[in-house]
Each structure stands twice: as structure tokens, then as C-alpha cells.
From TrEMBL:
Organism this protein belongs to: Gelidibacter salicanalis
HAMAP family linked: DHO_dh_type2
Entry similarity comment: Belongs to the dihydroorotate dehydrogenase family. Type 2 subfamily.
Major enzyme class: oxidoreductase
Protein name in the entry: Dihydroorotate dehydrogenase (quinone)
Length: 344
């Protein structure tokens, strides 16, 4: 129904407007008591799908990537659709409007999206207020939440660590794990923080604060698909030095190779089908060269259950959806989980 009825309708309108409209409709459905229908229809609830990773229990290995529910407005409702975990953000210390519109483009012929949103969000304190409604850890209604954190656009790279600390401290009691985002192409100079020294310093600072907590939280690093092999080897070294808990591979790409759509030359990060192969290559490289020394969450171009299984076979422990979810709908979550069960 989604692909043949809802998607053509939604895709006939501006993508950012549709995003906000869809949020309102999902919230309304849950408000009037229809949320249970999503849960009944789309959930694949089976203990064989559970995964334990960096001390957390994931009800299934299919999560929602950061960027969809930036401000933690819909994490409960999205969990009902069948996701095993929800990553909110990227959040920044202060609210910011992001880049000028239009800043979100569908590339239908390529089953892709280009965005240059620019970390638009209401600020970390606003997200915290919403996350306070999440059930306590251990409660059956607890939604497993990742907190994706970044810096404000006006903050120079030399002071970026302070922004990450502010977000880390504010979110600490309300998320289950953290993701350090230095790989978005839409904040000027942000990707320079992926260089070995500044990245090591940033992660070590957060890890030092983490280790002073009575019970630390997992910290992951989200990396770009555009890193060369030498840079990926640096990432492996950085994980070993700082002892962070894992890597999310990958964020959006600045490559435009092979695109057919009219919007192919828009500035921003490309996600979706064109990223499928490269993100899997990065996962396999990290897993093989590190001898699977740390967990990997695979994301990028997952549009079918086969795509997800390939990432898991390449070395990912969990997967996340974003663009594939927009193009394929909630059925994709169900298809992946059923495919996993068929292999048991």
C-alpha cells in the first residue's frame, strides 16, 4: 500500500513539507488510538532477533538513523512501526535554523536524496525535555535511544569540543548511547574534525568525562563514506587509542558518480541507493583490518532485506535505515527482520 498508494502521493509534494506533514499524521494516528495498528502490522517480535551490543539489549537489529527525528518528537511512535532503536539528532547546544530552503531534494531515478539541512534543530535542551517522557531502562515500554551530537555552525573547530561536551552532559541521563557526528558535509569545516589529531583529542575528552560517570554510556563515531583507506586505518587506530565503543558507517557522501536525476548537482550529502556499495565496502574494510575489534552499525543505501544482510555479512552488527525507509516504507523493517529469522 505504501509504495503504490501513499508514496506517489507524498512524492508529489515538496520533501521537507511532506516530512513535517508525515510527522503530524503519525502523531495524530497515535493520539486517536491507531498507534497499536502499526505495532500489530509491522512488528516482528521474536527473541531470536535480539542483539546485545556494548552492554545494551536491542529488541531487533534494525534502527532508525539520525536525521529523521532530529528533535526527539516522535521516537515512541516510530518505535511502534517496528524499529529496534531510534537515533535522535544531530542536536547542537543552541537551536539553529539550518541552511536556507530548499535544502532537501528527491532523486527519484536514483532512489536517493540530497540534503543540505545544516543541523537544523531546536537545541539539546528541547530534545532533553521530550526524552524525559521515555520509560525507564528495563521497562517494557522503554525506547532504546541514541543521541547524535554535533557542534553549532558558528562555533569554530578550535572550540568544537565544548559544544560536544555540552550536548554530552545534557543528554547523558536520557539516551542509551552517544554518536559523535563529525562527518556531515553540511556544516562548514566539520569534516576537518575527522583528521587524526583533532578527532583523537575530541573523542578522548568525551571518553574521559564518560569514565568519571558512575555508569558510563557507549560512545560511537559516525564516519563519512568518502574517507580513503589510509584514513579508515586512522579510524581503527583512533578507536583503539580512545577505547570508544564502535563506529557507524556511513554518513552521506559528497560523491555524485553515476547519478541520473535532475537534482544530481545540488550541494549537500547524498544518501540512498547510490551509497549501497560504498558503505558496505567501508564496513568490510573496517571489520577485516581491525579483525572485528569493535562493533559496527551499518547504514547507507539499505532498500531491501538483501542490502541489510550484505552489510551484516560484511561485518556490521546492527543496521540503520533512513532513505530506504522513505522510499520503501515500514514494510522494509519487517522484511529485514523476517529475512534474519529465515537464516536462523
Amino acid at each position: 500500500m505504501y509504495k503504490f498508494v501513499l508514496r506517489p502521493l507524498l512524492f508529489s509534494f515538496d520533501p521537507e513539507s511532506v516530512h513535517h506533514f508525515t510527522f503530524k499524521m503519525i502523531r495524530l494516528a497515535n493520539t486517536v488510538g491507531l498507534g497499536g495498528l502499526f505495532k500489530t502490522k509491522d512488528h516482528v517480535d521474536n527473541p531470536l532477533l535480539k542483539r546485545e551490543l556494548f552492554g545494551l539489549q536491542f529488541p531487533n537489529p534494525v534502527g532508525l538513523a539520525a536525521g529523521f527525528d532530529k528533535d526527539a518528537k516522535l521516537f515512541k511512535e516510530l518505535s511502534n512501526i517496528g524499529f529496534g532503536f531510534i537515533e535522535i539528532g544531530t542536536v547542537t547546544p543552541k537551536p539553529q535554523g539550518g541552511n536556507e530552503q530548499p535544502r532537501l531534494f528527491r532523486l527519484k531515478e536514483d532512489a536517493a536524496i540530497i540534503n543540505r539541512m545544516g543541523f537544523n534543530n531546536g537545541g539539546v535542551d528541547e530534545a532533553v525535555e521530550r526524552l524525559k517522557s521515555n520509560a525507564a531502562v528495563g521497562d517494557k515500554n522503554h525506547v532504546l535511544i541514541g543521541g547524535n551530537i554535533g557542534k553549532n555552525k558558528v562555533t569554530p573547530n578550535e572550540e568544537a569540543v565544548n559544544d560536544y561536551i555540552i550536548c554530552f552532559d545534557a543528554l547523558f541521563d536520557y539516551v542509551d548511547y552517544f554518536v559523535v557526528n563529525v562527518s556531515s558535509p553540511n556544516t562548514p569545516n566539520l569534516r576537518a574534525l575527522q583528521e587524526k589529531k583533532p578527532l583523537t583529542d575530541l573523542l578522548q575528552t568525551l571518553q574521559n568525562k564518560n569514565n568519571l560517570k558512575p555508569q558510563r554510556k557507549p560512545i560511537l563515531l559516525k564516519i563519512a563514506p568518502d574517507l580513503a583507506n589510509e584514513q579508515l586505518l586512522d579510524i581503527i587506530d583512533i578507536v583503539a587509542i580512545t577505547k570508544i565503543d564502535g563506529v557507524i558507517a556511513t554518513n552521506t557522501t559528497i560523491s555524485r558518480e553515476g547519478l541520473q536525476s535532475d537534482h544530481k548537482n545540488e550541494m549537500g550529502g547524498l544518501s540512498g541507493r547510490p551509497l549501497t556499495q560504498r558503505s558496505t565496502e567501508v564496513i568490510r574494510f573496517l571489520a577485516e583490518k581491525s579483525q572485528k575489534a569493535f562493533p559496527i552499525i551499518g547504514v547507507g543505501g539499505i532498500h531491501t532485506a538483501k542490502d541489510a544482510l550484505e552489510k551484516l555479512d560484511a561485518g556490521a552488527d546492527l543496521v540503520q535505515l533512513y532513505t530506504g525507509f522513505i522510499y520503501e516504507g515500514p514494510q522494509l523493517i519487517k522484511d529485514i527482520n523476517k529475512a534474519l529469522l529465515s537464516k536462523v
